[in-house]
Structure formats: C-alpha cells, structure tokens
Amino acid sequence: MNSLLPRLAVLTLSASIAALLPCPPASALALDAKTKAAARQEFRKSAARPCLAAQPCFKVRNTFPKQAKAEALPWRDIDYRTAPESYLRAVLAYIVEGNTAVDWQLHKNRKRDWYHAAWMHPVREPIHGLTFERGSRLHELSAVQTRRTNNWAIGFYNRQGATAFARVWRERSQPDTAAFAFPEGTVSAKLLFTDATDEEAPYLAGNNLAWQADIRGNGQPVTLRLLQVDVAIKNAPRDGLNGWVFGTFYFDGRGGHADYWDNLVPAGLEWGTSPTFTRADFAAGQRPPQGWVNPVAEALFATRAPDGKLGYLGRMNGPVDDPRSSCLACHSRAMDMQGASDPPLFPPFAASRIRQVSAAPNQTYETVLAAGPVDEAQVALFFRNLAPGESFDGTHPALDYSLQLAKGVELWRAWLDRRLAAAVPQPIAPEALAAPAGGGRGN
Ligand code: HEC
Fold first, then answer.
1. Could you tell me the CA-to-CA distances from 379 to 8, 290, 345 in Å, in that order?
2. Residue with CA at minimum distance from ligand 1 atom 36
3. Does residue 311 register a pLDDT over 70?
4. Ligand 1 shell residues, CB under 6 Å
5. What is the pLDDT of residues 133-146, one digit of tens each?
6. Domain segments of the chain: what residues?
7. Fewest CB within 10 A of the end CB: N or C in the chain?
C-alpha cells in the first residue's frame, strides 16, 4: 500500500499546497492568555445563533470523561459478517436506550453517557444542534423525487469514545491530535433528518420522529423527519482490518410500529472497503466482499444513479450519501489537516468514469465508460483499509475515521486564524510594518 502514497500525493497536490508550507501542529502553537480564555469560552458554546423562544434549546454535552466505565456490549458476541442484521439491531438497541425518552437531550439520559463532538457549534442550528448534510439529488430517495431535498444531522459518541475526545481537548483552548485513536468499545451514532415530503419519500410517513430546526437561519423553523441513522462501532482489529464497523438504517413507516425507532430498517454494514474489488468484478455480477447490503434497501433505493446502488460499485452507503463513495472510504480521510484543504471525497471522473451532471430540475450522476478505461489503481487510493494510525495522505495526523473530530479541529483553527488576523494591526513593531498584514502564518 505504501507504494501508492506518492501517487496520492500527486493527486491531491493542488489541494494541499498549503500543507507544504510550514504549519505547526495545533498543540505547538503558543497562544496568549486572552486568546486561550476566548477559545475556552468558544468551546462551551452550543450553536452559532441564539435559541428561539418557544422552541427547545440545544445544549452541547462536551464535558468529556477521562475514564471509561466497564459495560456489557451486547453485540460483541454477534458476528457482523454472518449475522449483520442481528449485530446492527443490538447496536441500535444500545443507542436508543435512555435517549428516546429524553428526545436525544444527552445530558438528561439516565441510562448511559453520550457526548457531542467538540467545536461544531459554528455550524449547528440552535434548536436541535443539527448541521447541514449533503442534499439528496434527483431520484435518490424515490422515483418521484425531483427536488433537491435538504438533510441535516446530529452525531454523538458513547463514553468510551468520549475519553478519546478528552485527550484531544485536555487543554480546552487548543487540541492535541498527535497519535490519536479511539479505544475498543467506542460507539458513535448519527441521526439524519430530511425535509422530503410524503410524496418524495413515501416510506417516511407513519410514526416518525419529527423535529423543528432553524435550517434557514431566519428564526422560522421547518419540520424535518428522520430518514437515516448511522452507526460506527470500534472492535479489536482483526484479519488485517482496523476494527471499525460502519452500518446504517433507514426509516420505513410502513412497518407500522408504534415506536419510531422500531421502524428503522438495517440498510447494511461495512467492515472493510473491499480494496481489490473492480468495475470488471461488478460487471460480472459480483459484490464487494467486505460488507453486507440489505437487498430490501437496495430495491427501495434502486432509482439512485449511476447504477442503482447505495455506494460505489455496490459498496455499503446510506441513502443520503454520495454513490461514488462508501462509509469507510469517506471516513478513512479523517485527518487533522492543520489548515490545508481536505483531500478529495472520491476518485475523479478521469479515474472512475462517474461524474455528476445536471438533469433539470436537479443533479444526478452518469457513468461514461466510453470515455476510456477505469483507472483501478487511482480508484483504489480511495478504497484502502488503513491500519490504525495510518494517515490517508501520509502527511497529516490520522483521526481514526472520525470526521466530526476532524471538523471540530478545523473549525477551531479557522476561528483562531480569524482572531489572529484581526489582531494583527495592534502591536506595531517597526519590523512588522515592512511585512504584509497577516503574512507569515503559513496557512
Ligand atoms: C462522502 C463522505 C461520507 C460518507 C460516504 C459517509 N460519511 Fe459519515 N460523516 C461524514 C462527515 C463529513 C461527517 C462529519 C460531519 C457531520 O457529522 O456532519 C460524518 C459523520 C459521521 C458520524 C459521526 C461520527 C464521525 O465519525 O464523525 C457517523 C457515525 C457516520 N458519519 C457514519 C457513517 C456511515 C455509517 C456511513 C455509511 C452509511 C457514512 N458515515 C458515510 C462524511 C461521510
């Protein structure tokens, strides 16, 4: 795999020029006392804008514990390869316990400790703390869905996972991302909501979870309904894989259950990215070996372009997610970019021969194999099974598949950069007058 890294560096070169400039890790930056105090204050914030009258008020829970507690993990003895549905249902039961009774206000859960990722407040709306997700393109939700619908989400980590956040954010004013890893037993979950109507996604009707959210930022909330629930579980690494299992559920009210969480149907799970699986394999009718996709889900979302599958060449992905990727593939990109641009999300058209196109009134994807052969080596760079601690681009610190941790650290750095840039005119040392304003930070 290491021999592929120089090629990846070429691929991402234009996006990561900034990474070549000297940029110290966050923990090495010397912040003055005032900046540290301001950063600690920011850390405690829940959302970008103030709460609204007569609406719930989202309260972030980021008082991360240093120690995990011993607890029974009911899925531990279930083999996700041979019994993926039972495995997923055991995980879901653990996640909903104590949370549904308090409408996912984590600090009120009396059953179990859950925490939000730190420093996502600049992108959270104030009612439920939701953040903007990828919109659903033409026909991704059903054959009659043509409008690009809006999706918003919130994620959280169990106590084990939160101990890893405690280490990164031990100093609340500046994160330390060196040698990061989550402990075994970490569980993360994410609820994804949509503004799709019954016409656009008929399976959303029924006893669903409906939340108000200020997604337009104008103080006039809209109603969103639960569409997808993502889960990520960290087991002990085995068989050369890193231990993560990523799975997802979609809501189907036609099940008719009285409790909305019983209407969640397993869509599939992935324990590896199936790195050697090629387009020729797919065309021959094979399916990626390191995952399971529920055939019922695949049939329900069969109108997704470019090939009616949830993820790339039939890999596991959620209905809300980009069909050119897969859960683990996208999450393997989690790094502390230290001010540089994120790596690309999926292989370029020149490699995969799949591109996004406008098809009024929305967008979709098409495969253009006539444009030339698929470059399997290039594509494979996006579908690797990275070892624990292995960085996607070989340069930036790996964040063990947590894109929320990555996002929080990125938002912290953006805040710091703005603050330092704004402060530049204040101390006017004679030699500083010769330098361009804001110059010299390297990012
Ligand atoms: C194309 C990229 C992409 C794909 C594909 C993707 N995710 Fe994510 N996911 C993200 C980003 C970005 C975040 C962090 C920001 C946020 O939560 O909105 C995230 C957050 C999460 C979280 C919260 C914890 C964390 O790791 O950050 C979970 C759990 C999660 N995703 C599970 C899944 C599952 C399960 C799938 C497949 C069904 C999936 N994701 C597919 C991009 C992706």
1. 10, 17, 11
2. 327
3. yes
4. 131, 133, 153, 155, 188-190, 230, 232, 246-248, 317-318, 321-322, 325, 327, 330-331, 345, 401-404, 407
5. 999 999 999 999 99
6. 2-415
7. N
